[in-house]
Write a structure and sequence with these properties.
This protein is of the alpha/beta class. 42% of the residues lie in helices and 12% in strands. It has 21 helices and 17 strands. It has helices at 3-12, 40-51, 56-73, 100-112, 137-149, 190-198, 218-235, 259-266, 277-285, 296-308, 321-330, 359-368, 370-393, 405-411, 428-436, 454-474, 480-491, 511-526, 565-577, 608-631, 635-647; strands at 125-127, 131-132, 154-159, 162-168, 176-180, 246-250, 269-274, 291-293, 313-318, 337-338, 397-398, 443-449, 504-509, 534-538, 546-547, 581-586, 596-604. The strands form three sheets. Strands 3, 4, 5, 12, 13, 14, 15, 16 and 17 form a nine-stranded mixed β-sheet that branches. A six-stranded parallel β-sheet has the order 8-9-7-6-10-11, with helices on both faces. Strand 3 and strand 4 form a beta hairpin. The chain is globular and about 70 Å long.
Length: 664
Amino acid sequence: MSSEEFKQRILEGIPSVLPPKKPYETQINHAPKRKAILDESEKKLALKNALRYFDKSFHAELIPEFKEELETYGRIYMYRFRPDYKISARSIEDYPHKSKQAAAIMLMLSNNLDYAVAQHPHELITYGGNGAVFQNWAQYLLTMQYLATMTDDQTLALYSGHPAGLFPSHAGAPRVIVTNGMMIPNYSKPDDWEKFNALGVTQYGQMTAGSFMYIGPQGIVHGTTITVLNAGRKISKGDTDLAGKLFVTAGLGGMSGAQPKAAVIAGCIGVVAEINPKAVQTRYEQGWVDEVYSSLDELIPRIQKAKENKEVVSIAYQGNIVNLWERLESENIHVELGSDQTSLHNPWAGGYYPADVDFEESNRLMAEEPEKFQQLVQETLRRHVTAINKLAQKGMYFFDYGNAFLLEASRAGADIMNDDGNFKYPSYVQDIMGPMCFDYGFGPFRWVCTSSEQSDLDTTDEIARDVLKNLMKESPKEIQQQMQDNITWIEGARENNLVVGSKARILYADSDGRVEIALAFNKAIREGKIKSPIVLGRDHHDVSGTDSPYRETSNIYDGSSFTADMAVQNFVGDSFRGATWVSLHNGGGVGWGEVINGGFGMVIDGSAECDQRIKSMLFWDVNNGINRRSWARNEGATFAIKRAMEKEPLLRVTLPNLVDENLL
């Protein structure tokens, strides 16, 4: 398809002539069938809701087709309207546009649906089993048309994937406001998501899927590397040499796909179990996994050899993690580090699979016999925890990697609780990322080069490295380790072949680092050293973006970890301080109803006006979270917010007064 044809397809939006039906492509990794949850009247309502997007002349032909989709897959995806062109992060100039900011957003959402990036591209799901960009293909087509025709005096409102329309605003306002899954609180249980998503009125945007900020496994590999490095430092009393140490975990889908690459970068042996053969093959083809085994009889000797030789290698086990844990325990193999990143925020719809049931049968059970499937999952979770407990008693350091493993294991009745009612094992945020990174303002800052050219990405890597090296000269001792880890990371970024999809990069930076790197990028664009605008963003899994009591805010101990003021404040505050788009989601990482998170994207174009937006928005975006953590009496955060006030005279925050425990 030519460039002009592509632009015309985008501008057409929902076609005026009904396109032919498309065959179901079995070689694509598809979302599992969702369980039937609608009664007959609700099925009719779902059809009426879907047909709202189409001219009445289409309805007679579409009704039986959409009805079949609803009955076969549990959702109406509108497969017929999936575009024929390749969806990927093209150059910003390839998209038809009147607003450069809108063109950048088209690039970003297209990247989320790239076959190399998305977990279930035909169902518009980027990662996590249910993290959707849109609910259906009509929403995609209409959104792209709106973005292609909007000006900088308009704002697009997106309601859980539905493009409500373009509204008059102004050049300083966000171009897009995204909300996903914003439910009345009493309607936020897992079955509520199943029902209202099937009706076509809400969706689960995960963290960065429905906010167009996903950059493939690279988006989490840096945080995973830091987590594994620091977990190794904990068990080795600061030693960073992990050679010969074994890290065992599960999950190779979306964000979990970063784990084997991170293990190698950290310098250990990474063994990752994954039940889905297509996910295993994808990570192997991308070079994120070195070796693949489907037989435990072959895998166990390979692990023993790797430990003996102190190898640095990543190995995928295509099979159930529970069988691997039980075998490791029975063979008495010492596992130094253990975790789990299966999508247990989504336990009943593909996020976790029962042991001793094959992949295809599991998918059938979850749709056709959901109660039996749930029973099998919970039995497996109890076995899972039993094996981990035995290995932990032998010296393994185990941590929850934040996808609700501890929570769902407790709900399954597993032996996961201490006598005091707390979990036996920490969240990785409690032990590692919270006190070592988030409290000091270090989190996953990311950028995307909209030229989609490697030369621009190389230039940004060099700029970021130089900025960090200069900042480190003046950094206090409290953050020297974080600074050095990130310099090491950015220096090896290209060598580690991290890019999948868009020309993007990520590193953990604090407020100073983010602002100075962004200003340096903006200057380079202004001087022509970088060819096209850059999109700035972050994972919501950050200092400020997410209120999540079992993950991002699990090291908040003042009782406020179940409140969501911080994420909402970030969403609102970013919008009027210069973000190009903002997003607010129910769910993400640990599950629907368990978390609220807010994110942003900012397009910088080299202008002086962008310099001001960078300083205002990025400073707020980080320090809002540091301040909240300081108020919770987190020592590192109080240090960081005091340092921020010394640098910015307009910043004045309420500091906590500490109480003498003896008085209490």
